[in-house]
């Protein structure tokens, strides 16, 4: 040994079990941070794809623009693409109500107007229709349909192309008819919208304000793609900003959880070595040198643990993304299972380094102040209070259980650290659960009573029709049908044959509204958020349980000499088990109570802040309590088994 700092790696290699437990704690904390942030990065990527699919790829729109406004905005160097959508009013197609419109071909793809077959209308009296309407009437490209405008003028039009279905128009059973530019120019638009997509890196809020001011565009004429702007962090929407604020608080708690996890284990490990520090002081080591030794140990532990923590966090994100992709390929088929967050990895590395350093220095500072004589003799660690004990615990419990509870509550710092570690994890769990709320996220989701098909008629419907529909296999009539409306639900939502059977039962006076696609789009948007957030909660719960098991292992390993002394003076293995179990359960229940109280309070504050309904999360609290008790019980089994197998004299003399 050439330098006193070489003591650091020698101690770590000589106490492999304790080192392994400390390294594991750092690995889990880093994995928690990296895993959560990587999953968040995947969520943002997927949500952006969903927004582009449902809302379109644009940033702002101008309502009823003038030609001068269109020309000025289109000529700007910071505009990537733009296009106008005209609402040409209502009409009829083959005597069925329809909506008429025109869309710039260059921007149609940005609004998910996708040509599935044929060509876009180029000449006068050419149109495009949605696929569902063509299928419903058995029409094909090249067929001629009769379209009557709102003013009563009718003419024949040729179907030149077919576009993908829109959930809203399909549910309303009102086909959208896209007309050519030539036809649209000869008609008066009811309303028009000019969509603008800016180039990457543009400050959209500032640029939009400059354009509006320069062209005297009033605020009521400007619209925003809030979903896309929110993901770009360029929104003015207070609700979205509130969502981000809540997210920042919750992810701040994730970072705090990682810090507490590392500090807790490292504090127990370092304080257990007061005797070693005392020996070093006796042979001339200064307080500064002891701090440097501990700092060197923390650096070694960081270099060992952080890479594994980063890999574990990446593995968590990989597994979660893979499960989603396999479980629901329709919804998550486009998600990349190799999506990792550079910010998450950087945060994990930074948290690991800083926390290990801080966690090692505070106990080392205390140890460096211990008298060398007291540290060597152990008199510093065994203090006898002059205050007379009341013996309340022994009146309520057996001696060994009373000792276990007393051991837990007498060491205030350890109690605070253990309790806070458990409590923060519970607070995170309850806090993230708030986000899985359709009302909170402004989403409509499928309910057990949501209809797949709705039949309407201005002329009324008979009870015989309702009876016929209820007799169809795979069809359920919901609620009490009215004279003008009947709601139906399908046992197999993808069964087109059943839909055809329903269509065969009704006559031309009844309109069939197919709401399946619209319902599915709403469900998919909600399920995306829900699955990812429950993934966050699952990762937090798993790592928190593993951390508690690891911390109890570290705690018991650090107090093995004390436990050996109790065995030496006559405590049986059964009594030892009860004592340690009582100590572990005390930690668990204390953390559980604190976490549930603060977590429920956080839930209520968040939901009140968002003006959403709140009810006491009874099932969550009961489940958390059961898990805490089970974890506290499991945490002591392995270390106690190892202690019972160890010879008492060897355990005492080895420390």
UniProtKB/TrEMBL annotation:
The keyword Transcription does not apply. The keyword Transmembrane applies. Keywords: Cell membrane, Membrane, Transmembrane, Transmembrane helix. It is found in: Cell membrane. GO terms for cellular component: plasma membrane. One of its GO terms (molecular function) is transmembrane transporter activity. It is a multi-pass membrane protein. Residues 249-372, 536-645 form the ABC3 transporter permease C-terminal domain. The chain crosses the membrane at residues 21-40, 241-266, 299-324, 336-359, 415-436, 525-549, 584-606, 618-637. InterPro entries: ABC3_permease_C, MacB_PCD, Macrolide_Exporter_MacB. Residues 21-209 form the MacB-like periplasmic core domain. Belongs to the ABC-4 integral membrane protein family. This is ABC transporter permease.
